[in-house]
Amino acid sequence: MLSPSEGRVKWQGADIHSLGEEYFTQLTYFGHRPGIKDELTSVENLRVAAGLSGIALTTQKAAEALAKVGLAGRESLAARLLSEGQRRRISIARLAICTSRLWLLDEVLTALDKTAVAFVRSLIEEHLAHGGMAIVATHQDIELSRGVTQRLELTT
Amino acid sequence: MLRWIVWRDLILAWRRRADALSTLFFFVIVVSLFPLGIGPEMELLRSIAPGVVWVAALLASMLSLGRLFANDHQDGTLEQLLLTPQPLYLVVFGKVSAQWLTSELPLVCIAPLLGVQFGLSNETLKILVISLVLGTPVLSFIGSIGAGLTLGLKSSSVLISILVLPLYVPVLIFGAGAVEASIMGLSPSSHIYLLSSLTVLSLIFAPWATAAALRISIE
What we know:
Chain A is an alpha/beta fold.
């Protein structure tokens, strides 16, 4: 979203600004803020997110994806009634259903418990195994058993 | 895709219906205060009616504009909307259409009832509704540019008014002009045609400007 102060960001050899929406089909961004609507239920949140990225998701499928992240039985609760960790899990379910190749994950492990952390790790590993790429910014340790990893340590 | 945006915003508006209702009540109360304050002087009421209804509609639309992108900006869903593989033009178009359906359409529907307080004839009430149907989308679409530009600023509601109200002037002139012409027994068609051209122009160009404004604000 920011333009770089120096240099260029390229995707498959082309500048991302000239690619525009074409680049966004390849990208899923998991941001600092959860990107969840408080008034919508978890299923609705997931279906809207999928619909906007051009994936048709039935209520059934959305509920399955939510069950995978441990939100079974809470599909029809408004997101504002869920805890912070549970809201993060809706965003994680969004990762599980998306078909893009590049994931940008910013602090993806915040407010998650051990099982959810393990799930996110397996999700990233699976994504890598299918030829995807992920850029993960994190304060916690995340050990990936599969794929090629490159670690950048940033200290200020 | 467009239907997802509209569907989402309509559900959100329904779950927060107090917001849309407050706009409607504001409009009803502002318009109703004039006959109460001026008293039963039919001639005077009839001559000020077009201006009063239109100015109230302008102000009421200012109330809902602040919410257009601010909520989405706060919870991060706007970032996600900007990163969807859809043209931002369509996203904006969908959001503004939903805003018109939830905040402006109720005003259009209740306007004939309010017009009765001013002693307008049936023919004039019809013109009032037509002018509002054509004019309120312009308010929504031009307003969205202001909402996009002032996103995330502190005193954004004041700034929106300063930015957007001057741009509303042509709509006010031709909208109220159409009703006035009808009251005086003249043909309102020239005003209506000009108003329709404004509607078409704003439908086509405003989403594009708003998309650019949003990109700037998000950076």
